[in-house]
Amino acid sequence: MTKPTSLTQQPAWQALERHYDQLKDKQLRELFADDAGRGEKLTAEGAGLFLDYSKNRVTDETLRLLLQLAEQTGVAAKRDAMFAGEKINVTEGRAVLHTALRVPKGGTVMVDGVNVVPEVHAVLDKMAAFADQVRAGTWLGYTGKPIKNIVNIGIGGSDLGPVMAYEGLKFYSQRNLTVRFVSNVDGTDLVEKTHGFDPAETLFIVSSKTFTTQETMANATSARAWLLGTLKDDSAVARHFVAVSTNAEAVSKFGIDTTNMFGFWDWVGGRYSMDSAIGLSLMIAVGPAHFQELLAGFHEMDEHFRTAPADKNLPMLLALLGVWYDDFFDAQTVAILPYDQYLSHFSAYLQQLDMESNGKHVTLEGDLVDYQTGPVIWGQPGTNGQHAFYQLIHQGTKLIPCDFIGFIQTLNPLTPHHDLLMANVFAQTEALAFGKTRQEVEADGVEAEQVAHRVFEGNRPTNTILADKLTPRILGSLIALYEHKVFVQGAIWNINSFDQWGVELGKVLASKIVPELQAGAEPDLQHDSSTNALIRRYRAGRRA
Ligand code: F6P
């Protein structure tokens, strides 16, 4: 295989480096003054989402060069290879086909000579039949009581997507069902999330692609003990446990009847799996029709990403702007700021999606990169963040590009809340972009010694993403927007966005330490002096 030209040797990259030197001090104030139409020009729309990217530190030339970079790094061909089911996850030898999970019935996506779309819909139909029974109260527990409580047990991609979307779509959920999510191996999570539940009315969904993940297996085992502590008959497990996994053998070994297993495939990465059977808890909560709408939104964004011209392509634009800040301005983080309480888990979800995908230090060929890859993703829903960390974004020493996400209509029209909320979206991006100059502060009559403290430099970049209303369809589209943004960035950085070897070392070391913590006799510790001492301190303290 011939090695691609190193990213930093690409003509567009080098032109961007020169361009950065010219543009780095240019103010958004000037860019807006130079072009009265900028606020309407630097916008794009697709799949129900409107993106205003005018408050970014870019000119037409920046955009031209960034688009050239995408071309020179072959983003479109890489995208097409993903959609076509090529094994682009090279370190695991797998196709990357979460997009196949939302292809409508009758579509075709071939993997190893097999059209996977009928299989995808067979699982969706099985999920829908099960969800309908639980929702209707006809799926009965062991004692004959209907299910009232659903507990999803999973971690990472088997938790973050479902919990984010459950919170995101709570408005559409069936309110006589209580849905909770247990992920942490800390026993407190399971204890608190089952608190007050009657085992006879509780259904556990054990969600794990591999069905070997330590945290999930420990929680599932303790959940079974909790159930049997009351119901006292192993056969109760079949009515109170279902599994979502690719590993039928391990599911059956755990004691869950594989007729109550919902499968998926190795070509669905964990962090891209919420629209597979991993979304079963969500489907039960919001119903199959809303789940289908969510998938339709994902698919609409997939089609937009696949077909829209690069300069109007939302994931492409978001990704390129991200590369601009990450690699040229040396920005280390991106803040995700949804102005909707229902999206309270959205930035946590994007943390895994982005950081597990693009937190990589070698290229696809295994060479060390000589440029920055994925940023730190963080954020809180507005307006809470404004009273916590926005100070640093406005006046600190770090450049923090932000995505503001808002909705034109609220699902809970409690006058005047929505206008207050959205006024803050517009005010924040305005303040970040244009700041407040020394002259403006002085003109307010501020005392001389306070002036410097009250100056806002501005020139802080933001994207504003607006949609009409938070519907299942829009949520699907929004998630797919970020999935594909992450894809484009990984394609430009020439890294594998679809493996996660970085989580392995800690897992392996932990499994070695567990028996050392549990040993009766003092174990022969062979770690470094810090780890040895910490283990000894823990063992001594635990016995006390
Ligand atoms: O964090 C590592 C990881 O492998 C994620 O990629 C995945 O989402 C998570 O663990 C859970 O894995 P599983 O679904 O196999 O339990």
TrEMBL record:
Domain of life the protein comes from: Bacteria
Gene3D superfamilies reported in the protein's UniProt record: 1.10.1390.10, Glucose-6-phosphate isomerase like protein, domain 1 (3.40.50.10490)
Biological-process GO terms, alphabetical: gluconeogenesis; glucose 6-phosphate metabolic process; glycolytic process
Keyword field: Cytoplasm, Gluconeogenesis, Glycolysis, Isomerase, Plasmid
Active-site residues per Swiss-Prot or TrEMBL entry: 356, 387, 507
The enzyme's E.C. designation: 5.3.1.9
One Gene Ontology cellular component annotation held by this UniProt entry: cytosol
Pathway note: Carbohydrate biosynthesis; gluconeogenesis; Carbohydrate degradation; glycolysis; D-glyceraldehyde 3-phosphate and glycerone phosphate from D-glucose: step 2/4
Primary location group: cytoplasm
GO molecular function: carbohydrate derivative binding; glucose-6-phosphate isomerase activity; monosaccharide binding
Catalytic activity: alpha-D-glucose 6-phosphate = beta-D-fructose 6-phosphate
Localization in the cell: Cytoplasm
Family annotation (InterPro entries): G6P_Isomerase (IPR001672), G6P_Isomerase_C (IPR023096), Phosphoglucose_isomerase_CS (IPR018189), SIS_dom_sf (IPR046348), SIS_PGI_1 (IPR035476), SIS_PGI_2 (IPR035482)
Function: Catalyzes the reversible isomerization of glucose-6-phosphate to fructose-6-phosphate.
Family: Belongs to the GPI family.
NCBIfam families, alphabetized: PRK00179.1 (NF001211)
Protein name: Glucose-6-phosphate isomerase
